[in-house]
Amino acid sequence: MNYRILAIYPFLIGAVAYAAPEVTHHDTVKLKDVVVTAPLKSNPELIPLNVTQVTAAEIEKSAESSLLPVLVNKVPGLFVTERGFAGYGVSGGSAGEVNIRGVGQGNKVLFMIDGQPQWAGVFGHSNADTYVANGVERVEVVKGPSSLLYGSNAMGGSVNIVTQTQKEDGLTGRARAMFGSFNTQKFALSSGYKKDRFSATLSGQLDRSNGYRAGSAFWLANEFMQLKYAVSDHWSVAGMLEMTQSHANNPGTTQSPLENMWTDIFRGTGGIYVKNQYKKADGGVQAYINWGRHLLDDGNAPGETPRDYLFHSTDYNMGVTLYESLYLWQDNILSGGVDFQHWGGHIWNTGKEDPSERSAEAKHSVNEVAGYVMMQQGFWDNFFSLNAGVRLQHGSTYGNVWVPQAGFILRPSNTSQIKASFSKGFRSPNIRELYLYPPANPDLRPEYMYNYEVSWRQYLLSSRMMVGAAIFFIDGRNMIQTVFADGRPRNVNTGHFHNKGFEIETSYSILSNLSAGASWSYLHTDGDNLYSPKNKLNVEVTYAPGPFSFTLEDMSIWSLKNGNPTGKTENYSLLNLRAAYTLSGKVPVTLSVKLDNIANKHYEIIYGCPMPGTTIMGGVEFKF
Fold first, then answer.
1. Helix (H, G, I), strand (E, B), or coil: what is residue 73?
2. CA angle 365-87-211, nearest 5°?
3. Residue 67 pairs with which residues in a beta bridge?
4. What pLDDT, in 10s, does the model give residues 230-250?
5. Which pLDDT band, with edges at 50, 70 and 90, does 129 fall under?
6. Residues of 455-493 as b/e, b for ≥16 C-beta within 10 angstroms?
7. How far is Cα 328 from Cα 325, in angstroms, rounded to an integer?
8. How many whole angstroms separate alpha carbon 19 and alpha carbon 190?
9. 206-87-579 Cα angle (round to 5)
10. What is the distance between the alpha carbons of residues 339 and 317, in angstroms, rounded to a whole number?
11. Interatomic CA distance for residues 403 and 372, integer angstroms
């Protein structure tokens, strides 16, 4: 662990700090206060797809240090695999696989930080442990293909993590420490500073745990820094750097236990962007890089001789995106852009006794370039809006892919909205599928799917109540599967699937200090779709009298295929409690406690990996 990096935080914390989040339309530069926000190609509320936004207040109330559990509770139709109390890991037996409406296995959901793609360049998977909750302003989840704007890997949807921006002048910040079950310790610092047109933010996080099972210890350190400057009322520049280091031990499954299986990971992402904001146009250019180093021991069964080598991999994913939106006439938006991406990596083994000895070495890379255009036109004072666009993407390994999208938004009143859309998503084959190991096939084509959906949202009782529903049908084609040809395994484009279902959600502000919400998602698949529950129900009630706050959550899962060879599905219900008390003063102090799985339910999301029973975490947070 790099303690030198963590050691600088007490000195830097006095320099910069975070302020409360604020949502702005069109992701614009707010001219009066000169606030520079993260780059987005399109306002998610203006596209006809189903979008869920998770706010900083919801993330803070969860008392989670990882974002993924928050998304599972807040986003209907989204589910994430877990294998224990802390950490997701990589390689064999890892967890953190995100499915949206049953689509996600094989990196079909694109994760981004401030619009920058985040995935490993060799194996194509996302890196669940790097998505921390500290310093996040909001998370925008698009349920359905986002390939029109973002290209490959956004086949089943996209998750954009928007980092916080200091919005008030001066210095602010917060510090948090939590302790609990299995000797778990979680520490977080965040700070921000703003003066005139300049702002800076800084955050750090450290998680440590012995884990629920023997041999499942985990630690993670995350560091984030961002600098922003509004050059004028129309132009701004910014740069960011985020790094994550983690070590995860994996005890295997109860049926096939392992010894000495561990992974050491370093992930980094950096980017710079320039934005413009005019009355008739806004956009920008962004350059980014996401890279990583992985070192792992695949372990051995108890009593077996340990492996005599370690596996190494390095990867990168870099690119440039140029985008601009024009407001040509009333209720019209014309958006377009060009993307270039270069990704790849290097793998090899080294001997434990002789680290200079290398074997199984390979190095590959892929180039992709794309252009897209999208137009939205409103009619009758935006009572009805049409949206349509197309993307052409060229990959050095697969040639051309066309990506169409079309839909409409109907607003019968100021408190209701109906969306309908047709969209295509795709995922290009990764380097492992193309070139590595015996099933590899360099002639693979992209996977793709067509998505059809209709959604409705209605606000009632002076907007104190919201009800919404969505229905969808997904047609997946060209799925990459491993088959046997001439007695040898080979990756081929042969699979297909159909997913269909619906989602219902509601929220109600009963009193000024009492609110409730619930969502139910139903999914039907025609295949053996692992880790995608048929039914998922989330219910939440929050009561906040004075300085106290109490939140009771329930998540119920039915008919989850978790890999059990008998075909038996998993059903469980988790009841969680969050409680907090805030001492007001010059430096507000919040004392909190969270109890998970109060009913001590026994369940397995991944077959052979039992999840913990009742757990408790308590903590304290200071704000200045």
1. helix
2. 145
3. none
4. 999 999 999 999 999 999 999
5. very high
6. bbbbbeeeeeebebbbebebebebbbeeeeeeeeeebbb
7. 9
8. 10
9. 70
10. 13
11. 9
Q: Give, as one character, the DSSP assignment of residue 10.
A: H
Q: Residue 60 pLDDT > 50, yes or no?
A: yes
- Please report where in the chains the tokens 């926000």 appear, as a residue: 37
Which residues lie closer than 8 Å to 487 by C-beta, 6 or more apart?
Answer: none
What CA–CA distance (Å, rounded) separates 310 from 300? 12
Which value, in Å, is the radius of gyration of the alpha carbons in the chain? 24
Looking at the predicted structure, is the pLDDT value of residue 5 above 70? Answer: no
Q: Is 105 helix (H, G, I), strand (E, B) or coil?
A: coil
- Residue spans of alpha helices (H) in 168-207: none
Average pLDDT on 438-459 reads: 96
**Which tokens go with 485?**
């040809």
- Residue 313 corresponds to which tokens in the numbers above? 């991999």
571-589 burial, b at 16+ Cβ within 10 Å, e below that, comes to ebebbbebbbebeeeeeee
Residue 13 has which token pair? 């914390």
Nearest to 563, CA basis, from 598, 604, 597, 523: 604
Which residues pair with residue 340 across a beta bridge?
A: 320, 369
* Integer angstrom CA distances of residue 42 from 160, 162, 420: 12, 13, 18
* Integer Cα distance of 503 and 501 in angstroms: 7
Number of helices (H) and strands (E) in the chain: give both, helices first: 6, 29
pTM above 0.70, yes or no: yes
| C-beta of residue 442 within 8 angstroms of C-beta of residue 406 | no
CA distance 504 to 549: 27
State the pairing for strand pair 309-326/281-300.
antiparallel
